[in-house]
Amino acid sequence: MRLQTNHFFNKLILLILLFSASAKAQIQKVEPPFWYAGMKNPELQIMFYGKNIAQYEASVSNNVIIKNVEKTENPNYLFVTIDTQNLKASEMVFSFKSKNKVAFTQKYSLKERKTNSAERKSYDASDVIYLIMPDRFANGNPKNDSDASLAEKGNRALPGGRHGGDIEGMIKNLDYIASLGATTIWSTPLCEDNDKEYSYHTYGQSDVYKIDSRYGTNEDYVRLSAEMHKKDLKLVMDYVTNHWGITHWMIKDLPTKSWINQFENYTQTHHRREVLTDIHASKLDQEVCVDGWFVPSMPDLNLRNPFVAKYLTQNAIWWIEYADLDGFRVDTYNYSDANAMANWAKSITNEYPNFNIVGEIWMHNQANLAYWQKDSKIGAIENYNSNLPSVMDFTLQDQIGSAFNEDNATWDNGMIKFYNNFTLDYLYPNPNNILVFAENHDTNRINDVYKYDFTKYKLVMTLLATVRGIPQVYYGSEIGMGGDKSKGDAGIRQDFPGGWNGDKNNAFTKEGRTAEQSQYFDFTAKLFNWRKTNEAVHFGKMTHYIPENNIYVYFRYTDAKTVMVVFNNNSTEQTIKTNRFKENCKNFKSGKDALTGKTFDIASEIKLESKSALVLELE
């Protein structure tokens, strides 16, 4: 009899265990995976994913209020909205019932926010941003170069393959970045990208709550942020709202058909984003611009769908809290629905009033760029406000790519290009909060553009360091790296020398740099470390003078400091009379060159070397 009882009891335990295992397997994903107490917006929408989960009724413990439970045509999704108002950091339990019986449960956590999280300081014009493509920067942990669960394996021999750079490599070289004078790191995306090839750029993300394991773990990303903050460096995440990768787990089982934009036949965007503000544009052209896919491997997200909009908003806020982020750069910003993006940006800045977000608005005139900056008077004509604090100054980048090659100035070439660019700053609501750059991971390398002419490199960097806005430097240019984009994107995304064991030289160290690399680095570090000390080139006013004889002069100044910047774009030595600039320098007798320490008498004239720039702190 005892044997029979034990046999029955064992079978009962087995059934309970099987039921328990089945219950746990019922929920495959919960997103956000956890949340934070004390957010300004107390409404939290939790997505539960599991086979036929929509058939169950959801309830929650701790007297938490469920405001709404929503289902879609896909029974594998359940969207549960709760009210976190006045809830403290705690754990709650969701119960899922069928026929009034609890089928399974799911724990969910509200975590404590960091002190003063909402008031975090973001990046601004006092910063210098260093742009890294992590797969090509440094391989700090060769053990994670490949992952059995991900399609593409490490292959450094393949130009467009995974080369192995990772978060650990970034952490190990933070001192190098800080020594350059950079204060902020913008890394191209780090979330998982499971494309079969060309996944190294990580813009085709397959899981936006998970760091790609070939870069490291979520915990490694948090550690990167913490180590950066110890060194007074800021971390900017490259965020993608427009598209995911074709291998994203949700694309394989869409919550609703309208989660992504779909046409009867595959339709790609025409990239003509002028149609978005064109009062004469056809609806067809506008639709294809916003709803067309970027490329076949990147499904276009439909932010007009409220589930999608909420998902992306909460995901962005989750990363800010979880990784203690200092800002966003948003990829392909105006490829998405304009109103939805305005709401997305507003939701984030409502939670974090000082948080800076710069959008990639790759357009080539100031009116089109200025339209997209927060509080634009141009946008206001159509009663539109993007709520986007910053845009990338592609018009200035256009001019940087040619002006320093134009030795013989004409009416519209040479230094007049820069003057004309800045004359249109009145279009921007906040020209000081614009990202200025010579190049990035999508453009021609500036050193290749100027045929590795160090003299012209100095002119480019001096301009970026002293004009209005937030300067951004692309990794490797500071040691003379180049690359030809006509040979493919891999050409402008080469490995940083010294980032891999066995590299011929290690440019991360003074001892490891070649003479040429040292020349580039020493100049760049001196320039941008000086920039950190002078508030006039951060937020000071700017007065510039019409270029004459290919010489451009402008002043950056506050009540306390004045900086005079002089560019001689001629291939010969020049002398300029200073009486023309007395409006800005009448109270000063001399200027000290910020880079050489040499003092110049500015009372009557200044001699300028060929193809040179002076940055004079007036005294």
TrEMBL record:
Superkingdom field:
Bacteria
Keyword Hydrolase listed? The answer is yes
Domain Glycosyl hydrolase family 13 catalytic residues, every copy:
131-531
User: Keyword set for this entry?
Assistant: Glycosidase, Hydrolase, Signal
Q: Where is the signal peptide?
A: 1-25
What would you give as a GO molecular function for this chain, any one?
hydrolase activity, acting on glycosyl bonds
Q: Where is this region: Disordered?
A: 140-162
Pfam families per record: Alpha-amylase (PF00128), Cyc-maltodext_N (PF09087)
Q: Which GO terms describe its biological process?
A: carbohydrate metabolic process
Q: Which CDD domains match?
A: AmyAc_bac_CMD_like_3 (cd11340)
Indicate what this protein is called per its UniProt record. Glycoside hydrolase family 13 protein
What is the species listed in this Swiss-Prot or TrEMBL entry?
A: Flavobacterium flavipigmentatum
Q: Upper lineage ranks?
A: Bacteria, Pseudomonadati, Bacteroidota, Flavobacteriia, Flavobacteriales
